[in-house]
Structures are given as C-alpha cells and as structure tokens.
TrEMBL record, chain A:
Superkingdom, natural source: Bacteria
Name of the molecule in the record: DUF4142 domain-containing protein
Signal sequence interval, chain numbering: 1-22
Residue ranges annotated for the DUF4142 domain, each copy included: 27-167
InterPro entries per record: DUF4142, Ferritin-like
UniProtKB/TrEMBL annotation, chain B:
Top-rank lineage group of the source organism: Bacteria
Listed name of the protein: Cupredoxin domain-containing protein
Domain EfeO-type cupredoxin-like: from-to ranges: 11-106
Record Pfam families: Cupredoxin_1
Organism: Paracoccus caeni
Xref: SUPFAM superfamilies: Cupredoxins
C-alpha cells in the first residue's frame, strides 16, 4: 500500500510539476493512453482476484471491475478510432504501470482473507487516485469534447467502483 | 425552431411543457419508464401508484441494479429492460449496488 502511494504520489508530483508549464499538460493522445492504462490495470487486478479469492462478495466485485473496465476501454478504443487519435505512451502511464506491477506482485504473495482485504483496500485507494487524476488533470486538460465527455463518464464509473469497494470492505469486517 | 421564430402561443406551450417535465414523472398506461445512461437514472425521481410498473431501460454498456437497502433488488443487464411492480410501501430511495453513486427515488401516491 505504502509503495503504491509513493509511486502514485511521485506520478502526481510530476503531473503537478508539469502543470506549472502549460506546454507540458498532457495532450489528448496522452490522456487517452493514461485513461486506457488505468482501466487495464484494474482489469489485471480483477483477474488476479478471480484466480485467488474464495469470497463471494470479492468475486462479484472483481467480476464487475473486469466487465465494466473492459466495456469502457472498448468504448474508448472506438472513440479514438473515430477521432483518428493514436494513444501515446507517456511517463504518467509508465509510472502507473510500474506502481501497479509492484502492487500486483505484493498481492500475488497473499492468500485467503489476507488477500481479500489487501485487494479490496487497494481498490478503494487505487480508484481514489485515479479520480484525483481525472478531476485535477485529465478532464481539465482534454481538448476534444467527446474525449472529455467519455472521461466524465469514466469519473462516474470510478466513483461508483470506489463506493462499491468501500461497501465490500465493510462486508468483510 | 429557434426562440425568435416561435409565436406567442408556442412560447407559452413550451413553457407549460417545461413546468410539466419539471414535476416528478407520472405513469403512462400504467408503466413508468426510467432510462439508465452514463451511470444515471433518468428521471431521478418518479411518482407511482401501487400496482403500476416501473420499467428501467439500461442503455449503458455495464450492468446495473435498482436496489433498496434491506429490501428488493432488480438486476438490469447491459442493453436490457427490467421491471418492478410498485407496492404500497415503496416510498423508497434506491441505488445501483454495483455503482452506489447512482441513486433514484420512488414516491408512492394515491
């Protein structure tokens, strides 16, 4: 958890530093890549959870993450195809992936209720971090109206997932 | 049609329509339609009489539910419709269990 915060914190810091220089705000191709990557990361975490958990609530939650993020990422691919935008890899996407890889390795080493608790708590934190990035940087930086609109739907989705995760945390207690 | 091109009667009619749609939506032929799009119930608040049917239509690419805490739940799969027959005790707030930031309200009348 601390590791994820540190890595995401570093990503956010570099984003904030970037904000000071207007030219360094992410471009639409970079924003599309970051948003898509955020979904891919949660899909990978859900696949790990489905392979490990024996808890019905955790399983249902993970399946919902898998289905929802796949659906929205498909929608994102259709949109960038229509707009003729090629998502562009960037340091923020790379920092997100590095942090997620480290977290997934940490989770993979856990089993049973220890895994369930660590997975769900991380889902609460991860969704909160993505919400902060969407709200503070990605949505305000997006230039294309349709991309901005999809990001706003993405915001509602991540917010819903965060609250769902919080309910599962309560149910596990 | 732009406002400039509307005559006085049309402007008044449009105004009446606006006032009507601002009220909680009432049933049409015994069925109240609630659209789900972009993670929102629309209309968010409905009025219903016992025995009337609420029909949710899911236009999102993700599954949703209409769930009453400690009460009933309706599953609304992707692209599907699902119904609930209004009961006398259905003066309730409901939400989507999968996305709890989606909320709606049913007000029982009559």
């Amino acid at each position: 958890m601390k590791m994820l915060f540190a890595a995401l914190g570093a990503a956010c810091l570099s984003l904030s530093a970037g904000l000071a220089l207007a030219d360094d705000r992410p471009t639409d191709p970079q924003i599309a890549h970051i948003a898509y990557t955020a979904g891919v990361i949660d899909i990978a975490a859900a696949e790990l959870a489905l392979s490990k958990t024996a808890d019905d609530d955790v399983r249902a939650f993970a399946q919902s993450m898998l289905d929802d993020h796949k659906a929205v990422n498909d929608q994102a691919l259709e949109l960038v195809g229509k707009l003729g935008v090629t998502p562009e890899d960037n340091p923020t996407s790379q920092a997100l992936v590095a942090a997620a890889d480290a977290k997934r390795a940490e989770l993979a080493a856990l089993d049973g209720t220890a895994f369930d608790a660590a997975y769900i708590n991380n889902e609460v934190d991860y969704h909160a971090q993505v919400l902060a990035a969407l709200d503070g940087l990605l949505i305000p930086s997006a230039q294309n109206a349709e991309l901005k609109s999809l990001l706003e739907t993405g915001y509602k989705l991540f917010q819903g997932h965060q609250q769902h995760a919080e309910h599962v945390v309560e149910a596990l207690k | 049609m732009t406002l400039r091109h509307m005559n006085r009667r049309e402007v008044i009619a449009a105004g009446v329509l606006l006032v009507a749609s601002a009220d909680a939506v009432r049933a049409h032929n015994g069925t109240i339609h609630v659209k789900i799009k972009d993670l929102a119930f629309s209309p968010q608040e409905i009025e219903a009489r016992p025995g009337e049917i609420i029909e949710w239509s899911n236009e999102d690419r993700m599954a949703h539910t209409a769930t009453v805490r400690g009460g009933w739940e309706v599953m609304i799969p992707v692209g599907a419709k699902a119904t609930h027959v209004v009961q006398a005790g259905d003066n309730v707030d409901y939400y989507c269990r999968l996305h709890p930031n989606m909320t709606g309200r049913i007000k029982v009348i009559g």
